[in-house]
């Protein structure tokens, strides 16, 4: 049997990094006032990094008194210190560092060809720093696409934007977005927003990017021919990415037609023929965008739906969705549209199909929800009874776009998962015996047959309620 002594090895190498007197490499890191000298061993650097294996073996390397001198001005001292800890000890606690330093570590680990660290940093950002990435999507996108092989972070950023594009596209940083990244974004088939909104934002981006226009000259009615031609040149590669067939005739008349001069003639002629005759364009042949896992809710923002899908599939909330995770959320009841009526809710949800219910309460940012894979049985039954289910759960979000502070409570007493009340005088539904139920326009939360995870017992006045039929595609 082979004995493993990794802990002792790691401890000895840490001493070698911090206190060694037999080093043969001096590396000057950083520039200007942010510099530091690091001492290391060429044999260790070369063994752990293909970059150093080549760089320190070169005949062009600078030596003085038998010592190798090396400069890395494009890496900050704090980032290089992280890299040396990984190389020597194989340990690194990223929670001790700022998010911007971690992004720089991603760039540096790619340059130094430290593959294991590079993959770990991507995974850490995606799984542990989702809030920061959401708040700094523009920066994260630039870094991700600066590194060709940074596929995980690229995909995560694009998926986050596609799930809920409006915050990113309307941000103050959007007009400065690099054109290559914008091109990739507009090519996405699952960009979940109205096409006319994409068009409006593209025009704003183009105006900001075009010399002679910008905020000082954004009034189209005051442009001359040169201004129109300049904007046309800026947007030339992006116009074919617009799905004009998804834009209504009224929107075309108000928003597209005024910019006729910036659209290539052959494309504009096809657009007009489509709106006047219904003939599908031959040049701009991109299909309508796929509203993948889209939810038409007035209660939650679209980006939260991936969390609910993971819960449905009994996975961790923050796991990236698989390409086969395709669901339709068909709205079957909305209180503000249909009226908050007991019998209507029960009749609309009278099935054995999967149903998701969302509830917003007055004077409260918190969102509540319930999911049942077995639906609600008919209220026409002459007696009340419990419906058994092992996949039901109740949950809460702190607010309609907060994907960090959500809580889920799964059923633990399967035989009491859902209570079907035969009396119409009783409102909507009850999950468990006292866990979550609605009565007299109030949402009541306790604890009995579901995990005690919500920690928000009490009674709340309902402001809005929605029910969706959940269909796996």
TrEMBL record:
InterPro entries: BACK, BTB-POZ/Galectin-3-binding, BTB/POZ_dom, SKP1/BTB/POZ_sf, TLDc_dom. The lineage of its organism: Eukaryota, Fungi, Fungi incertae sedis, Mucoromycota, Glomeromycotina. Residues 298-471 form the TLDc domain. It comes from the Eukaryota. It holds the Pfam family TLD. It comes from Rhizophagus clarus. Gene3D superfamilies: 1.25.40.420, Potassium Channel Kv1.1, Chain A. This is BTB domain-containing protein. Residues 23-96 form the BTB domain.
């Amino acid at each position: 049997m082979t004995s493993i002594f990794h802990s002792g090895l790691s401890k000895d190498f840490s001493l070698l990094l911090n206190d060694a007197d037999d080093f043969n490499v001096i590396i000057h890191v950083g520039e200007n006032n942010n510099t530091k000298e690091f001492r290391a061993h060429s044999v260790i650097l070369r063994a752990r990094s293909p970059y150093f294996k080549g760089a320190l073996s070169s005949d062009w390397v600078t030596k003085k008194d038998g010592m190798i001198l090396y400069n890395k001005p494009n890496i900050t001292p704090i980032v290089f210190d992280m890299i040396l800890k990984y190389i020597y000890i194989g340990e690194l606690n990223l929670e001790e560092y700022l998010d911007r330093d971690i992004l720089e570590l991603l760039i540096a680990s790619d340059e130094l060809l430290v593959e294991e660290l590079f993959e770990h940093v991507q995974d850490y950002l995606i799984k542990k720093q989702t809030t920061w990435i959401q708040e700094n999507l523009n920066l994260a996108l630039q870094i991700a696409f600066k590194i060709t092989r940074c596929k995980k972070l690229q995909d995560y950023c694009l998926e986050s934007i596609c799930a809920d594009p409006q915050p990113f596209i309307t941000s103050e940083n959007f007009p400065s977005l690099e054109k290559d990244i914008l091109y990739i974004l507009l090519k996405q088939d699952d960009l979940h927003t109205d096409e006319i909104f994409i068009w409006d934002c593209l025009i704003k981006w183009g105006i900001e990017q075009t010399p002679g226009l910008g905020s000082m000259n954004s009034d189209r009615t005051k442009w001359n021919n040169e201004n129109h031609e300049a904007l046309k040149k800026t947007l030339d590669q992006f116009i074919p990415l617009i799905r004009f067939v998804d834009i209504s005739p009224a929107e075309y008349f108000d928003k597209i037609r005024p910019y006729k001069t910036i659209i290539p003639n052959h494309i504009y002629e096809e657009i007009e023929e489509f709106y006047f005759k219904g003939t599908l364009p031959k040049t701009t042949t991109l299909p309508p965008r796929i509203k993948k896992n889209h939810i038409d809710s007035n209660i939650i923002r679209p980006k939260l739906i991936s969390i609910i899908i993971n819960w449905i599939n009994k996975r961790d909330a923050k796991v990236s969705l698989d390409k086969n995770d395709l669901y339709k959320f068909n709205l079957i009841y909305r209180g503000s549209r249909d009226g908050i009526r007991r019998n209507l809710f029960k009749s609309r949800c009278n099935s054995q199909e999967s149903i998701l219910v969302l509830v917003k309460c007055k004077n409260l940012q918190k969102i509540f929800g319930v999911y049942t894979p077995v639906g609600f049985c008919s209220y026409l039954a002459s007696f009340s009874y419990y419906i058994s289910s092992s996949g039901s759960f109740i949950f809460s979000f702190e607010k309609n776009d907060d994907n960090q502070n959500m809580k889920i409570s799964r059923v633990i007493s399967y035989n009491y998962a859902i209570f079907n009340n035969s009396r119409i005088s009783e409102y909507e539904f009850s999950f468990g015996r006292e866990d979550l139920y609605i009565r007299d326009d109030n949402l009541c939360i306790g604890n009995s047959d579901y995990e005690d995870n919500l920690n928000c017992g009490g009674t709340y006045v309902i402001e809005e309620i929605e029910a969706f039929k959940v269909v796996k595609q």
